[in-house]
Amino acid sequence: MSTWRKRFLADAAQWRSAGLERKRRVVRPVSATTVEVDGKIITAFASNDYLGLSRHPRLIEALAEGARRFGVGAGASHLVSGHHAVHEELEHELARFAGKPAALACMNGYVANVALMTTLAGAGDTIFSDELNHASIVDGARLSRAAVKVYPHVDVDGLESQLKSSGAGHKLVVTDAVFSMDGDVAPLRELLALCERYDALFVVDDAHGLGVWGPEGRGSLQALGLQSSSIVYMGTLGKSAGLSGAFIAADRLIIERLIQRARPYVFSTASSPALAHATLTALELIRSDEAGRARIAAYRDRLQRASSEWRPYRLLSSATAIQPLIIGDNTATVEIAEALLAEGLWVPAIRPPTVPEGTSRLRITLSAAHSDADIDRLCTTLSHVIASATADQA
Question: Which of 78, 134, 171, 239 is catalytic?
């Protein structure tokens, strides 16, 4: 047997024995919250489609209309011949939506964060990153060649201590706005104050806040009324917007620097012009869906009330659409997730390295497209499954 095969088989066996093996499930969507898996209809609490727009008739028609009007492929990178008029229109609208002077559309949030880290910082600079930031931020920071200082999660005093002692000529602070696995929210107002005090750029990844937070769903910064030329805002379009893609909104000087120097942008074929056209409709739908945001808040409160019946496990106190139920043990987490799936409810088991060791969890994600009956069924079934699991352990 070849050396590489022996090594990879051993790695796979170790991964499996630690309860960390993942499984791709082939789904056939039925609605925004219902899928068919292995011939069975499942209610999903597993998607980041927070407003249920991925199946919205207007958005589906907008994508089809975009394909008819503009075609399905851009044909080249933006800096060659792939920057269509509809891309330009979208970027103007994204800037307006985010309340920033300019915006740049990107293929996805991972690409956007790698582009930001590697273009806004480099050798001799320092990036200050929250310890629970998304993997795309972590990878981008590593690739940037800048020094990286990881500050304790949402610890403003810890960050200030690092900034105060830093001798870097250029500093960049980066944080998720809503943390995707804990559902907690960064202290954005305090972090911005530090950035302005210590002359640092402030990069905010609002993947899970856009559409759900702020007036007209304009995001976490708008919810707090924060404005500064030091802010670089990243929002994704594959979650609340129901499509795919991402964008960066910032000072014009920063956007122009990204256009000229961000390798993931310069050397990538532009996204579909049909998708750009559909995104314009998605932004309209987000702005008008106050009722959807209210439903998510009501569902969140319902889960928090029901969680007293889920002991010894703990539902984190999250004010967002992300409601993590901490189980702890990898195997127990998978077993509870599989028991829920057998009952027709899909709540994914999240394990290391996505989350720290000993904090494996069920990540419940809420959508405005869920019904009251869906939420009641989830709460009741979780209570039964957990009672059964803890009885077996006893």
Answer: 239
Q: What total number of domains does the chain contain?
A: 2
The answer to whether residue 392 scores a pLDDT higher than 80 is no
User: Catalytic residue among 78, 134, 208, 277, which?
Assistant: 208
| Pair 276, 294 in one domain | no
Tell me which DSSP letter residue 29 carries.
E
1 in any annotated domain: no
Radius of gyration of the chain (CA): 22
Residues of the domain holding 256: 59-288
180 is catalytic: yes
The residue from 136, 144, 180, 244 that is catalytic is 180
Residue 340 parent element (H or E): helix 330-342
CA 377, 320, 41: angle at the middle one, nearest 5? 35
Q: Are 107 and 177 contained in the same domain?
A: yes
Query: pLDDT tens, 375-387?
Result: 999 999 999 999 9
Cα separation, 34 vs 46, in Å, equals 10
Catalytic residue at 239? yes
Q: Specify the residue for token string 């056939």.
A: 28
**CATH value at residue 41:** 3.90.1150.10
Against a cut of 0.70, is the pTM above it?
yes
